Amino acid sequence: MALSIGEELPALEIPVTRTLIVAGAIASRDYQDVHHDASLAREKGSPDIFMNILTTNGLVGRYITDRLGPGCTLRKVAIRLGAPNYPGDTMTLTATVTGLDGDTAEIRVVGANGLGHHVTGTVTVTLGRQA
Questions:
Q1: 8, burial (CB in 10 Å: exposed 0-12, middle 13-18, buried 19+)
Q2: How many whole angstroms separate alpha carbon 106 and alpha carbon 10?
Q3: 101: helix, coil or strand?
Q4: CA distance 9 to 21
Q5: Which of 22, 18, 17, 13 is nearest to 113 (CA)?
Q6: Structure pTM?
Q7: Which residue of 4, 52, 76, 119 is 20 to 30 Å from 96, comparing CA positions?
Q8: Residuewise pLDDT in 10s, the chain (131 residues)
Q9: Cα separation of 125 and 34, whole Å?
Q10: What DSSP string runs through the chain?
Q11: What span, in angstroms and rounded, lies between the C-alpha atoms of 50 and 48?
C-alpha cells in the first residue's frame, strides 16, 4: 500500500456499549470492578463503568490494520489514555501518517469521544505488498 506523509486515514466510529466495555475487560482478563459493575464504579467516583486500556489498545490496532489491509504488520503501539470511554458514547478514531522509511510507516492516532480525547498515540507498521 502506498502512503504519503500527511495522509489521513478514513475515520472509524465505534459505539461504546456496555457489552463492548465488559467483553473487552473479560477478554483481557481485567476483572477490575470499574469495568463491569456500575454501582461499584460509582462508589469509586466514576459516573459509570469505563473501557480499559487493553480494549482501547486492541481497537487502535484493529483500526490501523483494517485501514491498511491484511499485509500490514503492527510493530509498535504506544498510546496514552485521556477522557474515559463511558457507555452510550461514540469513539471516533482518526489517523495521520507522520513518517515513512522504506516499508515502515509511523501513524499518529487520536480517538475522541464526547468528553475529549480518549486515546492519543503513535502506531508503527510495516506495510505489506498488495497481491
A1: exposed
A2: 16
A3: strand
A4: 25
A5: 13
A6: 0.93
A7: 52
A8: 689 999 999 999 999 999 999 999 999 999 999 999 999 999 999 999 999 999 999 999 999 999 999 899 999 999 999 999 999 999 999 999 999 999 999 999 999 999 999 999 999 999 976 53
A9: 32
A10: ----TTPEEEEEEEE--HHHHHHHHHHTT---GGGT-HHHHHHTT-SS----HHHHHHHHHHHHHHHH-TT-EEEEEEEEE-S---TT-EEEEEEEEEEEETTEEEEEEEEEETTEEEEEEEEEEEPPPP-
A11: 6
The residue written with cell numbers 463492548 in the block is 20
Contact between 125 and 73 under an 8 Å Cβ cutoff? The reply is: yes
The residue whose grid cell reads 507522520 is 98
C-alpha cell at 27: 477478554
Q: Say if residue 130 is exposed, middle or buried (CB neighbours under 10 Å; 0-12, 13-18, 19+).
A: exposed
Which residue reads 491484511 in cell numbers?
70
Q: Is residue 102 packed enough to be buried (19+ CB in 10 Å), middle (13-18) or exposed (0-12)?
A: exposed
